[in-house]
Amino acid sequence: MKHYLVAASTMMLVLTPAALADGMDNAVGHTVRVSLGEEGFDAWFGEDGSYSDSRGASGSWSLDSELCIHIETEQGSVSQCGPWNSDLAVGDSWTTTGWSDDGSAITIQIVGH
Fold first, then answer.
1. Is-contact 89 68, C-beta < 8 A?
2. CA 63, CA 76: separation in Å to the nearest integer?
3. What is the tens place of the pLDDT at every residue in 43-84?
4. In angstroms, rounded to a whole number, what is the distance separating the alpha carbons of residues 81 and 48?
5. 1-37 pLDDT per residue, tens
6. Among the four given CATH numbers 3.30.420, 3.40.1130, 3.30.60, 2.40.128, the one describing domain 2-112
């Protein structure tokens, strides 16, 4: 039983990055540009679940039924969740209101490496 648990733990370590990237394959390793009107920022999603952006924010991400971004701040972790379009290809963009409380639209574009 002990060997089974060690093997299962090892498999989780090996499979976790790929499992995290599943559904986010279009974003991992690429620059994702987020625009709200004239303002915007670039974001990067790591295969290991890491997140960073051009505003200086960093933390982690997870994807289940929604994409959740968890930012580390001095006050602790702050999470924001919204829809993700796993069909976007490099050069494609998508507009959604699913990330705002007030119905504001943002445009998400997969820019490339």
1. no
2. 21
3. 999 999 999 999 999 999 999 999 999 999 999 999 999 999
4. 18
5. 443 333 333 333 333 344 445 789 999 999 999 999 8
6. 2.40.128
24: left (phi over 0), alpha (psi -120 to 50) or beta: alpha
Tokens of 79: 């999470």
Amino acid letter, residue 1: M
Contact in structure between 23 and 86 (CB atoms under 8 Å) = yes
Work out whether strand 31-36 and strand 39-45 pair parallel, antiparallel, or are unpaired.
antiparallel
pTM for the model stands at 0.78
Residue carrying structure tokens 């930012």 = 71
Domain ranges of the chain: 2-112
